[in-house]
């Protein structure tokens, strides 16, 4: 494996996922806060978990605003495929690629300790840097306020690590408050 894989992958994310690379890089920052010293596969999976959204195509799943299990599975699997293709171009070991892909496939759900960390980092980052984007969806009418509220609450509720869920709770409450009282938004 290349020793600068994290660096080259970060550049790939920044150069490719133009409209929301912040959430990708910020997710890794959260992982490094809640689980410093995580394996490289876990860090790479966290940094790239949503990358399919940078590659529009006919097989790209479209979110309908509801907490839709089938959408999340399609989104996760498509990201795993695209990230696997990227890692293959970086001469990564097949076992390492599969390791990263298995984590990305469950990044919306968790399932085992390292998968729970990826999902928790994604959730914290969503509540940290994606709230304005989703408040905008409610304001523009793209999605209903109730759908956006459900997304905020779900991003907290799905976290499987109790102390991390506690960490996310005030972030979720703040997001819901801003949604329900737009005049107080800052
Ligand atoms: Fe995702
Ligand atoms: Fe995400």
Give structural notes.
It is a single chain. This protein has helices at residues 5-16, 21-34, 40-48, 69-89, 94-105, 113-129, 131-140, 145-157, 162-180. The protein is globular and about 50 Å long. It is 68% helix and 0% strand. The longest helix is centred in the middle third of the chain and has 21 residues, at 69-89. The chain has a single domain (5-184), classed as Orthogonal Bundle (Hypothetical protein af1432), CATH 1.10.3210. Helix 2 (21-34) packs antiparallel against helix 3 (40-48) and helix 8 packs antiparallel against helix 9 (162-180). It is mainly alpha-helical. One fe (ii) ion (FE2) binds next to loops. Residues 23, 49-50, 122, 126 line the site of one fe (ii) ion.
Question: How would you sum up this structure in a few lines?
Answer:
This protein is mainly α and 186 residues long.
Structural class of the helix and strand makeup?
Answer: mainly alpha
| Terminal residue distance | 45 Å
Q: Average pLDDT across residues?
A: 95
| CATH architecture heading | Orthogonal Bundle
Strand content: under 5%
* Radius of gyration using CA atoms only: 16 Å
Number of domains: 1
Low-confidence stretches: none
Proportion of helical residues = 55-70%
- Strand and helix order: HHHHHHHHH
Shape: globular
| Count of alpha and pi helical runs | 9
Output the CATH topology.
Answer: Hypothetical protein af1432
């Amino acid at each position: 494996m290349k020793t600068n894989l994290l660096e080259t992958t970060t550049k790939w994310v920044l150069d490719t996922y133009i409209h929301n690379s912040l959430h990708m890089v910020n997710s890794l920052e959260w992982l490094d806060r809640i689980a410093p010293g995580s394996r490289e596969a876990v860090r790479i999976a966290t940094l790239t978990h949503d990358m399919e959204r940078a590659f529009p195509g006919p097989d790209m799943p479209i979110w309908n605003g509801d907490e839709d299990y089938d959408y999340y599975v399609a989104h996760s699997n498509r990201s795993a495929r695209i990230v696997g293709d990227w890692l293959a171009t970086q001469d990564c070991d097949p076992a390492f690629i599969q390791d990263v892909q298995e984590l990305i496939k469950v990044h919306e759900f968790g399932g085992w300790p390292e998968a729970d960390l990826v999902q928790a980092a994604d959730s914290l980052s969503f509540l940290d840097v994606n709230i304005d984007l989703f408040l905008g969806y409610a304001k523009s009418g793209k999605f209903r306020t109730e759908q956006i509220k459900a997304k905020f609450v779900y991003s907290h509720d799905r976290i499987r690590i109790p102390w991390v869920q506690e960490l996310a709770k005030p972030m979720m409450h703040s997001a819901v408050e801003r949604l329900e009282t737009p005049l107080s938004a800052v």
